[in-house]
């Protein structure tokens, strides 16, 4: 199950990487949904100085997220796939904070598009961590 978990987490990281790149190169794709849930449009927000700063910060957060994805790929293929326990905890902590916080935020805002994307991320993370759990935390004799 360790191999299956590794594959699911790799798919989840690719998914998260695409999400981060969308925030960087096409923030309107994801921000429009969030703004519409609040009764605003991307174009109206983009026309203001504070809106431009908001979009720039969103791009910056996309870069931070993408860099985290790259780091977690190293963790995945150097330690997690060998069953190292701290790597499992690292995925739980980093992935859990990112996906679950985002999911709660999207639920509170009523942003259906991003909520669905976060549910996909949570499911990939959950199965990627739960399936190999017995293997990783097996009692060593």
Structure write-up:
This protein is mostly helical. The protein has one domain (2-136). It is 84% helix and 0% strand. The longest helix is centred in the middle third of the chain and has 30 residues, at 49-78. The radius of gyration is 17 Å and the shape is elongated. The two termini are 20 Å apart.
Which helices and strands, and how do they pair?
Layout: H1 2-25, H2 27-37, H3 42-46, H4 49-78, H5 85-109, H6 112-130, H7 133-136
Helix pairs in contact: 1-2, 1-4, 1-6, 5-6
Cα-based radius of gyration, to the nearest Å: 17 Å
Assign the structural class, choosing from mainly alpha, mainly beta, alpha/beta, alpha+beta, or little secondary structure.
mainly alpha
Strand content: under 5%
Tell the overall outline. Answer: elongated
Show unreliable segments.
none
Domain count, please report it.
Answer: 1
Main sheet specs:
none
CA distance, first residue to last residue: 20 Å
Report helical residue fraction.
Answer: over 70%
Number of helical segments with 4 or more residues = 7
Overall pLDDT score: 95
Tell me the quaternary state: single chain
SSE order: HHHHHHH
Number of strands: 0
List the defining traits of the structure above.
0% strand, mainly alpha, 141 residues, 84% helix
In short:
The chain is built from 7 helices and no strands. By secondary structure, the protein is mostly helical.
